[in-house]
Amino acid sequence: MLIKVGLLALFLAVSLAVGFAMRSRGRSVDSFVLGGRSVGPWLTAFAYGTSYFSAVVFVGYAGQFGWRFGISAVWIGLGNAFIGSLLAWVMLARRTRLITHSLGSATMPDFFGKRLGSPSLKLAASVITFVFLIPYTASLYNGLSRLFETAYHVDFVVCIAIMAVITGVYVIIGGYTATAVNDFIQGIIMLAGIVLVIGAALGVNGGFIGSMKALANVSDPAVSGMPGAFASMFGPNPLDLLGVVLLTSVGTWGLPQMVAKYYSIRSEKNIAAGTVISTVFAIMVAGGCYFLGGFGRLFPVDVASSGYDAVIPTMLSGFSDWVIGVVIVLVFAASISTLSSLVMSSASTFTLDFLRGHVVKDMDERKQLLTIRWLIAAFILISSAIAVVQYKGGLTFIAQMMGISWGALAGAFLAPFLYGLYARWMTRAAVWANFIFAASVMMLNIFARASFPAVIQSPINCGAFVMLAGLAIVPAVSLVTPKLDRDHLDRVFASVAPDDSGVGRRLLKMD
Questions:
Q1: Which residues pair with 224 in a beta bridge?
Q2: Cα dihedral 491, 494, 495, 500 in deg (nearest 10)
Q3: Separation between Cα atoms, residue 317 and residue 438, nearest integer Å
Q4: 3-state percent helix, strand, coil for the chain, nearest multiple of 5
Q5: Pick the residue with more confidence: 6 or 422?
Q6: What's the pLDDT at 511?
Q7: Are 170 and 373 in contact (CB under 8 A)?
Q8: Could you give the angle at which helices 74-81 and 269-293 cross, rounded to 10 degrees?
Q9: What's the pLDDT at 422?
Q10: Chain centroid to CA 427: how far?
Q11: In contact, 381 and 164? CB cutoff 8 Å
Q12: Cα–Cα distance between 400 and 408 in angstroms, integer?
C-alpha cells in the first residue's frame, strides 16, 4: 500500500507543481485557451494522444471489445493510430491551423459561425458541444472506480474527489499550457505503463505464444461457433468490429477537444513532426490497450454479474504492488489528461460562443477569463455528480456513455468541419440539416433504442452510422440550397494558397 500511495502522491504533486509553474502563461484568453498558438510539436502531439486515450479506453473499451472480439481488437488500436492520428493530422492539421488563425477562431463552434457567416450556427454548435461533452466527461471517472477499489479499497466518491480537485486546480491556474505540459508527462507514464502491464499479463500464461494458444482454446457459443474465434485475425464478429474501428478512429476528426490541438501548434513546420509523434504514441498506447484486452478471457472474470468494466481490473488484481501502482498512475494520468481537455473545451466554448455577445453583451477579456475559470470548476462538479449517480444506479456501461457522446459530436461536426476546410460549396442549410440529424438520432438511440434496426441499436454502431451519413448529407443538401457569397468565401480561404496541392485537395477535389 505504501508503494501504491507513494507513486500516486508523486504523480499528483508533479501535476499541481506544473499548474502553479505555468500560471503566468494564462493571462489572456488566447494564451489560456490555446497556449498563445505557440505550442511545439511534442507537447501538441502528446496532448492529442492523451486527450484521445483515457481510462474509458483502457478500462471500458479495452475490456469490452477485448472480451467481445479477442485479439482482433488490436485492429481498433491500429485504426486509432493510422486513421484517428496519422490521417487526421495529414488531412486536418495544416488547414485547421491556417484557416482558424486567419479567421481568429478559438473553438470549433466559432469556426462554424465564421466559416459560414452564421451566429446561429455557432450557438447551435456550442449547445451540442456542451450537452454531449458532459456525459463523455462523466464516463472518465468511472474508468478509475474499479481500479481504485482493487488497489486502495476506497470509496468511488473519494476517487472522484481527488481527480476533480487535482484537475480543477492545475487547469484553472495554468490553462492550456499547464495542460499541455502535464499531458506530456502523463503521456510518458502511459507509454511506460502499457509496456509494463502487457509484459506482466502475458507472463501469467507463458508469454505471447502460450497466451495465444490458450486464447485459441477459448470458446463461447453465445458469441461464435467458430473454433479459435478469439485468436483469429478478424474475430467472431467482423462487422461489429468495423463499426468500432470507424467510430473510434474517424470519430476523432469531429471532436472539438481533439481538433483544438491543431489550433495551438506553433507553425506549419511543426506539423510533420507532430504527425509522426502522435502516430507512434497511438500505436503504442491504443494498440497496447486493445492487445491487452484481447486476452481478457484468460482471466476469471464474471462479465454476467460484474460487466465488461471488470475485465481489466480483474486481469490486474493478481499483479505485484509495483505493477498495480504503475497501472493506477497510468490510468489516473490518462483520465486527468482527457478530463482537462474536455473541461477546457466545454468552458471555453460555452463562454466564447454562447455567453459572450449573446447572453452577456459586454464581456471584456478579464470577464471572459474569469468566466472560463468558473465554468471549468462548474463542469467538473456537474460531471462528477453525474458519475456518482451513474455508478450508484448502474445506469449504463462506460463504453455506452462514451459511444453516445462520440456518436453525437462526431456525427454533428465531422462532415461540416472536414468539408468546411476544403469545400467552398458547403451551405448553411446543409450544416443545419446535419446538426439536427446527428443530435436527433443519437438522442433517440438513448430513449427508443429498441425501435432501431438491430445493426444500429448499439450506441457504437449508431454513432458510426450518423457519422458516415453526415458525409453524404452535407453535399446532398448543399446541391439544392443557396451558396455562400463569393467574397466571403475568398476571405475564408485567403490563408490557403490558390495552388495548394495538399493531400486533402487531391483526395477530395473540392476547390
A1: 220
A2: 140
A3: 40
A4: 80, 0, 20
A5: 422
A6: 44
A7: no
A8: 170
A9: 94
A10: 28
A11: yes
A12: 12
Cell numbers standing for residue 179: 495542460
Q: Taking the CA of residue 480 as centre, how many other CA atoms within 13 Å lie in the half-sphere pointing to its CB? A: 4
114 phi/psi in degrees, rounded to 5? -80, -35
212 is written with which cell numbers? 495465444
Integer CA distances (angstroms), 476 to 57, 412, 479, in order: 35, 15, 5
Q: Which residue do the cell numbers 506549419 mark? A: 268
Please count the CA atoms within 13 angstroms of the CA of 407 that sit on its side-chain side: 30
Closest CA to 25 of 168, 172, 176, 180: 176
Rounded to the nearest 5°, which phi and psi values hold at 137?
-60, -45
**C-alpha–C-alpha distance, residues 99 and 105, integer Å:** 8
At residue 501, the pLDDT reads: 44
Can you spell out the DSSP letters for 358-421?
TTBS---HHHHHHHHHHHHHHHHHHHHHHHHHHHHHT---HHHHHHHHHHHHHHHHHHHHHHHH
Contacts of residue 48, defined as CB under 8 A and 6 or more positions apart, other chains included, come to 85, 258, 261, 274, 278
Q: Enumerate domains of the chain plus CATH numbers.
A: 2-508 (1.20.1730.10)
CA–CA distance, 399 with 36 (Å, rounded to integer): 34
pLDDT of amino acid 122:
93
> pLDDT averaged over the chain?
84
The cell for 382 is 456537474
Look at phi and psi of residue 357 and say left if phi exceeds 0, alpha if psi is from -120 to 50, else beta: left
d(CA 3, CA 26): 35
| HSE-up of residue 241 (Cα within 13 Å, Cβ side) | 24
Cα gap 235→69, rounded to integer Å = 5
What is d(CA 361, CA 183) in angstroms, rounded to the nearest whole number?
35
Which pLDDT score is estimated for 508?
43
pLDDT of 343 reads 87
Report the run of H or E that residue 357 belongs to, with start and end: none
Q: pLDDT value at position 150?
A: 62
Entry field: residues in the chain: 511
Phi first, then psi, for residue 39 (nearest 5°) are -90, 135
H or E stretch covering 361 = none
Tens digit of pLDDT for each residue in 419-457? 999 999 999 999 999 999 999 999 898 888 888 998 888
How far, CA to CA in Å, does 239 sit from each of 69, 101, 230, 244, 504? 11, 40, 15, 9, 28
pTM of the model: 0.86
Instruction: Report how far residue 259's alpha carbon sits from residue 329's, in angstroms, rounded to the nearest whole number.
Output: 26
Q: Which residues pair with 360 in a beta bridge?
A: 356
| Angstrom distances, CA of residue 331 to CA of 11, 53, 299, 320, 412 | 12, 10, 20, 17, 29
What are the E-state strand segments in 112-152? none
The answer on pLDDT for 335 being more than 50 is: yes
DSSP states along 448-482 = SGGGS-GGG-SHHHHHHHHHHHHHHHHHHHHHTSP
